[in-house]
């Protein structure tokens, strides 16, 4: 899932990317990457025991980002 935000006052374009991936031992990861478009972003990986937990976390982050103007 890719989200973008354009700050017109500073002419900055930001991205926020999230992907859910299975682990080797039956766990699940939520991989997040964010930063300015055209530049390498920062990456964070959070681990969950169940896929639904990772999906719930992704949804909560998506809602928080949409309140800040990400689309």
Overview of the structural elements:
It is a single chain. The chain is α+β, with helices and mostly antiparallel strands and 71 residues long. The chain has one domain. It has one helix at residues 51-67, and strands spanning 2-7, 12-22, 28-36, 42-48. A hairpin with a 5-residue loop joins β2 and β3. The radius of gyration is 13 Å and the shape is elongated. The N and C termini lie close together (11 Å). Residues 1-71 form the WGR domain. Keywords: Plasmid. It holds the Pfam family WGR. InterPro entries: WGR_dom_sf, WGR_domain, YehF/YfeS-like_WGR.
Task: Give keywords.
71 residues; elongated; 24% helix
Number of strands: 4
- Give helix % range: 10-25%
Low-confidence stretches: none
Main β-sheet description: 4 strands, antiparallel
Domain module count: 1
Keywords: Plasmid
Protein name: WGR domain protein
Pfam families: WGR (PF05406)
InterPro entries: WGR_dom_sf (IPR036930), WGR_domain (IPR008893), YehF/YfeS-like_WGR (IPR049809)
Quick structural overview:
This protein has 71 residues and is an alpha+beta fold.
Outline the fold blueprint.
Blueprint: E1 2-7, E2 12-22, E3 28-36, E4 42-48, H1 51-67
Antiparallel strand pairs: 1-2, 2-3, 3-4
